Amino acid sequence: MALRRWAWLAGVAVVLSGCESAPIKAIKEEFRTLFQTHKGAPDLANGIKQYEDANYTEAARLLQLALDQGLARDDQVKAHKYLAFIHCVSGREQRCRDEFRAALKIDPSFELAASEAGHPIWGPTFRSVKGQR
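The structure assignment produced for this chain is given below.
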């Protein structure tokens, strides 16, 4: 069912590709964004894996590389979140705050998952940064 819907939407995009009105341009741009692959995505995935394996130095390197190469909006937030976690557990509170601020600048509605929000180190730091907005 979902595959048929995507095929239909792709067909509509092809049909509308010759149209240049403002609403059609917006739809075409949304399709480009939807189907665009972001160069930094593999490094983001590897960075998260390194984080989960407690290889924080390598995780931070890969997460920053992913950001530098380009990520979708939600993935940018995710990369900044993990960088914040790394800085918090490494005793770099200001850098932790800076990463949470960067995530919130991209998505002001960003929230930590319940399990993350309860963490004794970065939970209070995130709530403090979020409260400053």
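Interim note for the steering committee: The helical segments are 2-16, 22-35, 41-52, 56-69, 73-89, 93-106, 114-117, 122-131. The chain has eight helices and no strands.
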